[in-house]
Specification:
The chain is an alpha+beta fold. The protein is 44% helix and 14% strand. It has 11 helices and 6 strands. Strands 2-5-3-4 form a 4-stranded mixed sheet, with helices on both faces. It has a two-stranded antiparallel ribbon with strand order 1-6. Helix 7 links the parallel strand 3 and strand 4. Helix 2 packs parallel to helix 8, helix 2 runs antiparallel to helix 9 and helix 5 packs across helix 7. The chain is globular and about 70 Å long. The two termini are 36 Å apart.
Length: 277
C-alpha cells in the first residue's frame, strides 16, 4: 500500500505537456523488408564469399599495434620489403569487388549519384572549374587528371549493399536509401542496387569472416566473381529501394511543413525549489 501511495504521489507531481516537432512534408522512406529465413541464408552466403579475404589477411598481414610501433617497424622492414612482397601471394580475386566501411561506400555512391544528375544546358560559357587558369602549372594539371581518374575508378555500380543492425544511431546511415536510388540511375542498363538490412548480431559473423575487429557495412560491386547465387537470391527476395519524395518533388507542388504534436509529461516544480539559489 505504501508503494502505491508513493507511485500515486509521483504521478500527481507530473502534468501533461505537448511538444511540437517539425517534420518533412514528404513521404517517409521505408527500408526493404526481408523474411528472417532469407536473412540467414543471405548471411551464410555472404560470409562464405568474403572468408577468403579474411584468410589472406590473417596469413599474410601483420595486425597493427599503433602508429608509433608501426613507424619503427616500417623503417626496419624497408631493406626486406622486396623479399617479403615476392613471398606474399596475391589477394583473392573477390577482394577488388568488395568494399568495406560506410565512408568508402558513401563516397562511391556519391560519385555515381553525381553522374546521374541531369545535364546542364550548354550556354557556350565555360565555368571557372572547366577553364584552366593561365597560371596553372603542369603539376596542377597533373593533379586534376589524377583526381578525374580517381573519380572514374570509383563510379562503379553496387549490386548489393549489406547493413547489419547495430547499436549505432540509425541517423549515421539514414542517407543510404536516397543515395542507393540516385546512384542506380547512373546505370539504367543494370539492375538497381539492393539494400539489405541484416539482423542484429550479424556484424560479429562478418568480422570473423574478414578477420577484422570491426566491420559492418559491405558493398558488392557489379560483376564480382562467385556471387551469382548470393545476388540472385537477394534480387529475388529484396525489393528495390523506393524513395517516394523523388517523385513528389517533381510535381512542383507546395507542401506545408508537417508539425507533429507529441504528448508527454513534465515534472511539476514546487515553489520551495524555485526559491532555492
Amino acid at each position: 500500500m505504501q508503494s502505491q501511495g508513493t507511485a500515486g504521489s509521483a504521478t500527481t507531481e507530473r502534468k501533461p505537456k505537448t511538444i511540437f516537432q517539425l517534420d518533412t512534408p514528404f513521404t517517409t522512406i521505408q527500408w526493404p523488408d526481408i523474411p528472417a529465413q532469407n536473412q540467414n541464408t543471405i548471411l551464410e552466403l555472404l560470409c562464405s564469399l568474403i572468408s577468403p579475404i579474411g584468410q589472406h589477411r590473417a596469413n599474410h598481414t601483420t595486425p597493427s599495434k599503433g602508429k608509433r610501433n608501426q613507424k619503427r617497424k616500417r623503417r626496419e622492414a624497408k631493406p626486406r620489403e622486396a623479399t617479403l612482397h615476392d613471398d606474399t601471394p596475391p589477394s583473392p580475386e573477390i577482394s577488388s569487388f568488395v568494399v568495406v566501411g560506410l565512408n568508402s561506400i558513401t563516397r562511391m555512391l556519391e560519385a555515381s549519384s553525381e553522374k546521374s544528375k541531369p545535364t546542364i544546358f550548354d550556354t557556350g560559357i565555360a565555368s571557372a572549374e572547366e577553364t584552366p587558369a593561365e597560371s596553372s602549372t603542369p603539376e596542377d594539371l597533373e593533379s586534376k587528371r589524377s583526381e578525374s581518374h580517381v573519380k572514374s575508378v570509383h563510379t562503379r555500380h553496387f549490386s548489393v549493399i549489406f547493413v547489419p543492425k547495430s547499436s549505432q544511431p540509425s541517423i549515421l546511415h539514414a542517407h543510404l536509401p536516397q543515395l542507393v536510388t540516385t546512384a542506380s540511375l547512373a546505370y539504367p542498363g543494370l539492375p538497381a542496387t539492393r539494400l539489405v538490412q541484416l539482423e542484429k548480431g550479424s556484424d560479429a559473423r562478418i568480422c570473423e569472416a574478414l578477420k577484422l575487429p570491426r566491420a559492418s557495412f559491405i558493398g558488392i560491386i557489379e560483376g564480382a566473381p562467385y556471387v551469382k547465387a548470393l545476388v540472385e537470391l537477394v534480387r529475388e527476395c529484396v525489393p528495390e529501394v523506393d524513395v517516394p519524395w523523388l517523385r513528389e518533388v517533381k510535381k512542383g507542388e507546395y507542401l506545408p511543413v508537417k508539425i507533429n504534436a507529441v504528448e508527454t509529461f513534465a515534472p511539476v516544480v514546487k515553489d520551495k525549489e524555485r526559491k532555492k539559489p
